[in-house]
Design goal:
Blueprint lengths: L4 H26 L57 E2 L4 E2 L28 E4 L7 H6 L3 E9 L5 E8 L5 H9 L2 E3 L1 E3 L2 E3 L1 E10 L4
Antiparallel strand pairs: 1-9, 2-9, 3-6, 4-5, 4-9, 7-8
Length: 208
């Protein structure tokens, strides 16, 4: 019976039907899609990348117009020096062992000889000491005097300066002024030499 082509076709169809149905069920289970709920991810805003912008509804403040400043006041005048050169009385230089100033030299007519080179001469004062009245002494109304002992080297520079004053407030200024003075050195036989034993008196008096 199965050898007949006519009878084999229905038999094969009956056998294939359960197989096809089983495959259908298998495929249906595989492609069955369940409902998926999507969750919205939280958004993050970076302040540096997206800075806060001003609200368009916010009124814009107007900048005030700069005003011209009043003319600046003149600076106060510099403080006045409490002592001036005119307040310091500087007597003539006293040289130990010098010829008294009271002697009047006798005029002697020089002989008519050809000029000669001077090989010896004493030292000379080029710029005398110019002390400034100390402010502490001026504020206290103190007057005084100093005797400044010093020496001159072969270049005419004062050294070994030491002042003896009636008040210690004048000592440093008296020594400073003599150190700043300028002298021409003494010349002996064509050579500049040092001079020691010199004394310079200084009087500090307030102007009336």
């Amino acid at each position: 019976m199965l050898n007949s082509p006519v009878s084999r076709a229905p038999t094969a169809a009956l056998l294939a039907l359960p197989v096809a149905y089983g495959l259908f069920l298998l495929m249906s289970s595989l492609i069955d899609v369940k409902e998926v709920t999507l969750v919205k991810a939280p958004s993050r805003i970076l302040g540096i990348i997206t800075p806060n912008r001003p609200s368009p509804d916010k009124p814009i403040t107007k900048r005030t117009k700069p005003q011209m400043m009043d003319a600046s006041q003149k600076p106060p005048p510099p403080p006045r020096v409490s002592a001036t050169k005119s307040n310091v009385v500087m007597p003539e230089l006293v040289i130990m062992g010098a010829v008294p100033g009271s002697l009047v030299p006798t005029r002697i007519d020089p002989p008519t000889v050809s000029p000669v080179l001077v090989s010896s001469r004493g030292y000379q004062v080029i710029r005398p000491p110019m002390p400034v009245y100390p402010s502490r002494a001026s504020a206290r109304g103190i007057s005084g005097s100093c005797s400044v002992a010093f020496a001159i080297d072969p270049r005419g520079k004062p050294y070994k300066v030491s002042a003896s004053c009636t008040d210690p407030v004048f000592k440093s200024e008296a020594e400073r002024s003599v150190l700043k003075a300028e002298f021409a050195p003494q010349l002996v036989d064509g050579q500049f030499v040092s001079v020691t034993g010199l004394e310079y008196p200084l009087d500090f008096k307030l102007a009336n």
